[in-house]
Design brief:
The structure is a single chain. The protein is an alpha+beta fold. The protein has one domain: Haem-degrading domain (Beta-Lactamase). It has 6 helices and 5 strands, in the order αβαββαααββα. A 5-stranded mixed β-sheet has the order 1-4-5-2-3. A hairpin with a 3-residue loop joins β4 and β5. The protein is globular and about 40 Å long. The relative contact order is 0.22.
Length: 161
């Protein structure tokens, strides 16, 4: 898929993957699904789900590396700043031939426009938190989060090819 096609699909995902309500129980359900998906792939990865700055779920699988915590922090900062998926931001920057620093003055030590961070939206409220995965190639991190969100919501959404 082209960058333009990716951006269109991600925008569809962001519009579709919205909750009526989201709480600690939902976070644990979502986090468990993400961890299971990493295990099924035999992947060493880390998952974090936060709501209004409070971590509701954090976990990793065998093979996760300490550096993944920093990737999660940087992706979380990107999701919080833009209320968009970190992959959407990265693809838009790629489309425009820009960087986070050049376009927004954001330092790469604190922000990452790489796949794996996704906003948690509640209908009628907006972005209330984030779900972040690190450990796979960025496109796969994004796809894993999208598939888990769709599973929890019981819906089917467009996927990146």
């Amino acid at each position: 898929m082209s960058v333009i096609e990716d951006i269109a699909v991600i925008e569809e995902q962001e519009k579709a993957l919205r909750f009526a309500a989201f709480d600690a129980d939902t976070a644990w359900q979502l986090g468990g699904i993400l961890r299971s998906k990493l295990l099924e792939r035999g992947a060493g990865g880390t998952v974090e789900i936060e709501l209004a700055g409070q971590v509701l779920f954090a976990g990793s699988t065998v093979g996760a590396t300490p550096g993944q915590a920093d990737w999660i922090r940087r992706k979380r900062n990107t999701v919080r700043r833009f209320a968009r998926s970190s992959y959407a931001i990265g693809r838009a920057l790629e489309r425009d031939g820009e960087t986070l620093h050049a376009r927004h003055g954001l330092e790469l030590k604190d922000y990452a426009a790489h796949g794996g961070g996704f906003p948690i939206f509640v209908v009628g409220v907006g972005c209330i938190g984030s779900v972040i995965v690190s450990g796979l190639p960025q496109r796969d991190d994004h796809a894993l989060v999208v598939s888990a969100l769709a599973q929890v919501l019981g819906i089917t959404v467009a996927q990146l090819e």
